[in-house]
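Protocol step 4 of 6: structure prediction from sequence.
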Amino acid sequence: MKKILVICYLIMCFVYCTPQEVIAEQNNNAKQGIPYEYTPKEGSIEELYKDIIVTLIVPYISREVETHYGQPLLYDLFDIKFLKIERPSYRSFEFIIKLQIRPFVGAHNTIGIDDITIRITPSETQVEEFKHIKSFPIPPNLK
């Protein structure tokens, strides 16, 4: 009986005391990009970087909005949502940014929701896709 208990004890010690390999993966893989809507914390360095990016791509967004709607429209820079950011290959300087904007007329009467995909490389920045998601009626006094 003692032999069986000793053998069971040794087996338990062997099983529970053997080092286990644990692999931790980073949740936010820069190679895969940010595959979800992301809002940085207020006052963070990420918020600063987001605002810099938005400022640099505003001319491309405005041109596409004017092309789609046939007139220049306003949209809030702070309200631009980053839906997805991709970097096709590691440490390349090519980025694909998918944004969502809400153009408005008058005192912030939203007339649509639009997704814009922009490709940024060292040599050029270009809009790859402009997708109109939803329309809202324009108030009669603003037509």
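Step 5 (inspection) to follow. Residues 43-142 form one domain.
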